[in-house]
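Example 5.3 — phosphogluconate dehydrogenase (NADP(+)-dependent, decarboxylating)
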Amino acid sequence: MGVSGGEEGAWHGPSLMPGGSFEASKHTEDILLKVVAQVPDSGPCVTYIGKGGAGNFVKMVHKGIEYGDMQLISEAYDVLKSVGKLTNEELHQDDKGEGYLVDDVLDKTGLKGTGNWTFQQAAELSVAAPHYSVILGFDQVVDTVKLIHNVIQAINASKICSYAQGMNLIRARSSIKGWDLKQGEQARIWKGGCIIHDIFLDRIKKAYDRNPDLPNLLVDPGFAKEIIERQSAWRRVVSIAINSGISTTPGMSSSLAYFHAYRSPCCLLIWSKLKEIFMERVYI
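Solution (predicted structure tokens):
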């Protein structure tokens, strides 16, 4: 069973993703329904995921999406702080003690392996799921008000692509394993008890409720309209970051590349050919 929620989940209820046999899950259902996070408009954050290791696989992808969210937040902060010259007070009021907490956070990260497994599965299943970052120097003057607006648009557009990649990764493994995962239900149980819960999940559930066979969140009418409207601001932020020589915004730029590739017949043809070559090298 996949478990998400960390310290908050331990106190207030986690999101649980049970796998294994369906018969066994019925024996624990009453207990799990009581211990998980409860979301008023969508119910307890648990559902039977599928046979075998389905629950743990879904939890793994959830962790990959979480890392993607943290990456995008870091990139937005870097652009606003380094290019926009915003102060900590302008970025956010911090009441965690004297000074600003963000200034005391070490510029380093650690891994428990889950994120790497997500990327390995993405490569094995030929499902795009890009991220990561490098920090350089910078020197560019910009309109701060416009920059803030553009960064908000860029991070939201990038998140749509990040979640789309994660949901497609789950669907690909489900198809191979015969798990018959319900993607709308999967989004529902992440709405509470886990780190990534946000308004996107409710919209994702509704998108799959409208069309259970949706090939990609990018072609859902609501998400498609939103990402098209934000693409100009999205490109501006990536361009500003590159021209400034600061963080190359790998999360935002790779998500933008994913969007470009998904809508381009030429890029899709190239990706299809590369996929064939990759699969031959891995499995033959």
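Remark. The mean pLDDT is 81.
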